[in-house]
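Reopening this one. Same input as before:
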Amino acid sequence: MVMQEQRQANGRASMEMDTRSPQTPIRIIKLREPKNRLEISACVIAALTEVAMTDTDEELTKLTQYETVVSIAMASPSHQAVVTVAKRAPLEIKQLPTPKPTGKEVLVQNLWTASTPLDLHQADGGLLVQHPQVLGDSTAGQVMATGPEVTMLKEKDLVFGFTFRNEKEKAQQEYVCAPENLFGKVPPGWEDRLSECVTIPNNFVTAWNALLDILGLALPWPKPSTFAPSPSPRILIWGASSSVGQYALQILAYYGYHNVIATASPRNFDLAKKCGATHVSSYNSPAADLKKDIEARLEGKVEVVLDCIGSRNGSVAPIAQIAEAGTKVAIMLPVVVKDAGEDVEPEYAMDVAEVVQWHDEMETMGVRTHFYLEDPFLSSHLQPDIMPTLLARGVVKPNKQKIVEGATLLERAQKALDMLRRKEVSGERLVWRVG
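Same output, byte for byte:
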């Protein structure tokens, strides 16, 4: 009989007796997930002490004849993740295996994340979800391990990134494993400001991709010192105080686009102007009045529209009345047909051409940021190079943060989701500690 006895010591060690060799019996001590040599020693002593206190005198005499061997039985490392389990159900914690990075991947200990409307769309609306699904796409933390092909990052680097494609990349978990091109290195001076840095990646990437690849505006990188957009089109940014709106305005200002008007609530007019809007109008005005005001301020018809809200009634419908033939319109997806509420299930649409009646000869496009990686240049440079460089230069400024407190990871995640559902924030991001 291979195993004649087994003991537990402090829940960390087990004793096994291997008598296959009668001349030299071996007492084996197995440890589960030891953290260091001190813990190994402590577990061994605890196991032997437990045997000494409970075995018979006869067995204790035999113990002196045994060769004691320590076998470290390392269990696969794991970590906590926030997951959806059903539409509109409370969030839960799931224990996930912590992956080992391969190829160009890095393993990041995620310290901060920022909640987004997409979290609400997935938790309440089940948008593109297979339960249980890890939430989140905004990561800020420290590199703990690197794959063999990684060249831009190293262990202990502080990074921030838009990570989104699969379970191991999602951000509402203690460890994130993703390719190095999905991160930027935190610039000098920002090391203690990760809660600010985490507000940048997902919506900075969204704004850049929408302006460049979808609307076709020139954003050469590196920006030539003599660059000036010619011609400079008349641009409308709808929802300037949103995270995407703020970054869109900052990018346009950096590149010298000067015919830019934004909509916002009156309380956020100053924020829109600080981000780079030439003019600001209230989105609460009737569409006909807003159209007259915008065209008077821009001295002509709107040529380019970026809808940073994506609400059928709140943004898309009035934009359809303001834009005319020849106007390019890009709209954040999904389009919200019905908002989520405490007792209301949301509705969404993915085809912007179908949600309202548009004028003929207008170009309407949905913004799906995840496809930016199909652009080889953006895939290689947007997060690793452009994003941290513009942050370091002060061109890009983090969104204002509202820190969500809570005793546990789950409590913080659930609080943030509930605040999104109740629409408690405007002009700022919900940020909370993960690790």
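So the earlier flakiness isn't reproducible anymore. For the record, The chain has twelve helices and 22 strands.
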